[in-house]
Write a structure and sequence with these properties.
Blueprint (H helix, E strand, L loop, with lengths): L5 H6 L4 H15 L5 E2 L9 H15 L2 H9 L8 H15 L8 E4 L1 H13 L1 E2 L5 E6 L6 H4 L8 E3 L3 E5 L3 E5 L11 E7 L11 H13 L4 E4 L22 E6 L11 E4 L2 H15 L5 H12 L1 H28 L6 E4 L6 E6 L6 H10 L2 E2 L1 E2 L18 E5 L4 H20 L2
Parallel strand pairs: 1-14, 4-5, 4-8, 7-12, 8-9, 9-10
Antiparallel strand pairs: 2-11, 3-4, 6-7, 10-11, 12-13, 13-16, 15-16
Helix pairs in contact: 5-10, 11-13
The structure holds pyridoxal-5'-phosphate.
Length: about 425
């Protein structure tokens, strides 16, 4: 039996995100239609969008010189120079941001960007001190939870909860509770937020950016679902970049997770750090996503397909999933659904749930319905005894419509029974 280093102990053993991706990959690979996979962050297969990727793939394949370079050449560790330039020009054109290729870097998906970035900015320092990443609002993306390599990475703040009507709610940032001192290395949030579907407002984001600048720390905003692509955001909100901010984007939620392509926009210094970490950890990135998407970035099609096809698909789907859930749950169940503002999920809060959300997950799994227990998303909080942590479920609505409907029926039946037995 081998022993593991600190790094190994943290990364080589079981993790929430590891279990989630294993369950997701196995279910998709099994093709078992009896299982209702409402668990992962898998994008939907939207026929019109899938056809577009196929066409781009074929156009590439029909060009032997492109194929030789895309499949046969390593690219520089920061990403293809032409692609980085195209990305910078897109954001300059759309939003007037003063950025160039030197402010853009490619990573193996957004996940890798966070792994490298958060570990580089926070954790253990050579002088023996430790610094943390402030999560201004939780629940927050499960994929951040386990990526610390040296010491615990997060300090999280409880959200404010606004109850709306009988069955709806919304989170907001509790600015009075945000404390930033020397031990905070960065502020980080996803927008739209996985899992809650919350979109932090422009005013909240502005406030965070000011706090970050006053304290000379970066504000990292994860746009995996955000604008301008894939644009799965249902509220009015404006993308913002300042030199103190780090923005991450990804091709995954457009429907290309297999290409493993993440995009970071940041200061030139930060971009050089990431490129260097890419070189050391993986030499170079996958070329395929960049090659497929570049003409669509140059033409602006990446934005039109996001706004005209991808966003409407998920917005409609979110509304349907919401209506089916409301229809299936007994009105006497004290449920609340987070206002659906973006991303791929409904976030269900069952106040006073008689068992924990983790136990509810197990019961649903036995009935062939995979969701994610909400407790995974509340990492970094000082206290473990806040009931809300164990009262929520994340329900992904990207699977086929009939599987989603069936899954929601079973889920609601289990919940109705639990509350009826009280
Ligand atoms: N950030 C958020 C909020 C996500 O939901 C995901 C994936 O689910 C990622 C980042 C990472 O995705 P990828 O590494 O495929 O770009």
């Amino acid at each position: 039996k081998h022993s593991l280093s600190t790094f190994g102990n943290r990364l080589a053993l079981d993790s929430g995100i590891g279990e989630l991706m294993q369950d997701l990959g196995e279910t998709l690979a099994s093709g078992d239609e009896n299982l209702c996979m409402l668990g992962g962050g898998q994008p939907a297969h939207i026929p019109e969008v899938d056809r577009r990727w196929l066409a781009r793939f074929q156009e590439l394949a029909d060009d032997p010189r492109r194929v030789a370079s895309v499949l046969g050449d390593y690219q520089p560790p920061g990403g293809d120079a032409g692609f980085r330039d195209s990305v910078a020009k897109l954001f300059e054109r759309e939003f007037g941001w003063p950025i160039t290729a030197e402010n853009v870097c490619i990573t193996a998906g957004g996940q890798t960007a966070f792994f490298l970035l958060l570990n580089a900015l926070a954790g253990k320092f050579d002088d023996g001190t430790e610094r943390k990443v402030l999560l201004p609002i939780v629940p927050e993306y499960i994929g951040y939870a386990d990526l610390a390599t040296s010491s615990d990475l997060y300090r999280a703040v409880h959200p404010l909860i606004e109850k709306i009507g009988d069955h709806e709610f919304k989170y907001a940032i509790d600015f009075d509770a945000l404390e930033i001192d020397d031990s905070i290395a960065a502020i980080c949030l996803s927008r739209p937020t996985n899992p809650s579907s919350n979109v932090v407002s422009d005013a909240e984001l502005e406030h965070l950016a000011q706090l970050a600048e006053e304290n000379d720390i970066p504000l990292i905003v994860d746009n995996a679902y955000g604008d301008p692509f894939p644009g799965v955001i249902f509220t009015d909100s404006t993308p913002v970049w300042r030199p103190s901010m780090v923005l991450t984007y990804s091709l995954s939620k457009l429907g290309l997770p297999g290409t493993r392509t993440g995009i970071v926009i940041a200061s030139e210094e930060m971009i050089q750090w990431i490129a260097s970490m890419n070189a050391i950890s993986s030499l170079a990135n996958n070329n395929v996503g960049q090659a497929m998407i570049r003409p669509m970035i140059d033409s602006g099609e990446i934005i039109s397909i996001s706004h005209e096809v991808i966003r409407p698909f998920y917005e409609t789907r979110s509304r349907h999933a919401h209506d089916w859930l409301v229809e299936a749950l007994d009105d006497s169940v004290p449920y609340r659904i987070h206002r659906s503002e973006g991303a791929f999920f409904l976030w269900l809060w069952l106040e006073g749930l008689p068992i924990s959300s983790a136990e509810l997950y197990q019961r649903l799994k036995k009935r062939g319905v995979m969701v994610i227990s909400g407790h995974y998303f509340f990492f970094g909080l000082p206290d473990d005894d806040w009931p809300h942590r164990n009262e929520c479920l994340r329900i992904s609505f990207t699977t086929s419509e009939h599987v989603l409907r069936r899954g929601i029926k079973i889920l609601a039946d289990e919940i109705n029974q639990l509350f009826a037995q009280q």
